[in-house]
């Protein structure tokens, strides 16, 4: 894990705490990600659905940050205390879910 680094992900969850693809399709512009790392500006981007139920973070065109991929985000429940892994430029990194807030 990366100390003091994290992601804020705005995404619709279904009743099993997994990303709801149909609700995402209806509101994809609202599904955002913010990558936070110490000593760096926050990177703002979108949550993007891909083939084989894959998910990735696509950062806004103003930045030079490459896309990052969520590992098994299509089947992973997002619950407090669980872990979600993100494939970043330098490899796979696990992150602990610390909050889930209904909108």
The gist of it:
The protein is mainly beta and 103 residues long. The chain has one helix spanning 21-26, and strands at residues 6-9, 32-36, 43-49, 55-59, 68-71, 83-88, 91-96.
Secondary structure blueprint with pairings:
Elements: E1 6-9, H1 21-26, E2 32-36, E3 43-49, E4 55-59, E5 68-71, E6 83-88, E7 91-96
Antiparallel strand pairs: 1-2, 2-3, 3-4, 4-5, 5-6, 6-7
Report what the structure shows.
With 103 residues, the chain is mainly beta. 6% of the residues lie in helices and 36% in strands. The chain has one helix spanning 21-26, and strands at residues 6-9, 32-36, 43-49, 55-59, 68-71, 83-88, 91-96. A seven-stranded antiparallel beta sheet has the order 1-2-3-4-5-6-7, with no helix packed on it. β2 and β3 form a beta hairpin. The longest helix has 6 residues, at 21-26. The protein is globular and about 35 Å long. It starts with 5 loop residues before the first strand and ends in a 7-residue tail after the last strand. 13% of the residues are buried. The model has no long low-confidence stretch (mean pLDDT 91).
Percent of residues in β-strands? 35-45%
Question: Which class best fits the helix and strand makeup?
Answer: mainly beta
Instruction: Report the order of strands and helices.
Output: EHEEEEEE
Global shape: globular
For the termini, the CA-CA separation is 28 Å
Main β-sheet description: 7 strands, antiparallel
């Amino acid at each position: 894990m990366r100390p003091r680094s994290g992601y804020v992900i705005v995404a619709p969850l279904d009743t099993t705490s997994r990303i709801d693809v149909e609700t995402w399709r209806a509101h994809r512009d609202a599904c955002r990600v913010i990558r936070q790392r110490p000593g760096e500006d926050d990177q703002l981007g979108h949550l993007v659905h891909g083939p084989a139920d894959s998910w990735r973070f696509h950062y806004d065109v103003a930045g030079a940050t490459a896309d990052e991929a969520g590992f098994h985000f299509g089947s992973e429940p997002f619950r407090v205390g669980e872990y979600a892994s993100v494939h970043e430029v330098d490899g796979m990194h696990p992150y602990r879910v610390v909050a889930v807030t209904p909108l």
